[in-house]
Amino acid sequence: MRKISSIVFVIVCVVCFTAAKKPAPKGGWVKLFNGKTLDGWKAGNNASTFSVDSGCIVVHGPTSHLYYVGDANNHEFKNFEFKAQVKTMQGANSGIYFHTAYQESGFPDKGYEVQVNNSHGDDIRTGSLYDVVDVKEVYVKDSVWFTEYIKVQGKRVIVKINDVVVVDYTEPEHPLRNKEDHPFRYISNGTFALQGHDPKSIVYFKNLQVKSLDN
After folding, report:
1. What does each C-alpha distance from 179 to 26, 104, 106, 126, 206 come to in angstroms?
2. How far is residue 11's CA from residue 200's CA, in Å, rounded to a whole number?
3. Which of 54, 65, 78, 187 has its CB surrounded by the most CB atoms within 10 Å?
4. 56 pairs with which residues across the strands?
5. Please, what are the domains in the chain?
6. What's the whole-model pTM score?
7. Which of 33, 98, 74 is nearest to 215 (CA)?
8. For the chain, what is the largest distance between any 2 Cα atoms, rounded to a whole number of angstroms?
């Protein structure tokens, strides 16, 4: 009887271990944030700007950027869908970068920024493809959760706020970029980053997910 129980125990353990190691379904949504810690994320200078509370990434402090460096797709994305729930407080400014790369300080040189800003003094509003396609209309209010969605397929970028398309941009063959400001703002490949813009800005992120379209 003990022998049979031991065999059953081993089988159950093997099944549980296999299930735990089972990869995410091909082409499915993958979580980038576990809701508890910043495991898989890395900030440069002023890392204390980012913390976790009640299942959210809280952004509040001096200028800093938090880069995804986790296991999903080895934190390297080209064609993808990304979505996150976001909440801004009054006067807050932030952003979601894609096709970027970790750097210790300063605003990310590589990749595009999708704006998060409903009431900050900068009139480039939430959903903008910053300094490329600038949205002036305010689609969502502060202190209310909303979904920000980004899709990149080839040279086309679509940004939605609560399922409303606010940007539909196709990068031309030879895009003009300010060499002093955003010389590397191009479609390429890379990771994601969240922006801590300034000490007065408070922004919350949760349910950050990505779906690779290259599988």
Report:
1. 39, 21, 16, 25, 34
2. 55
3. 65
4. 53
5. 29-212 (2.60.120.560)
6. 0.87
7. 74
8. 76
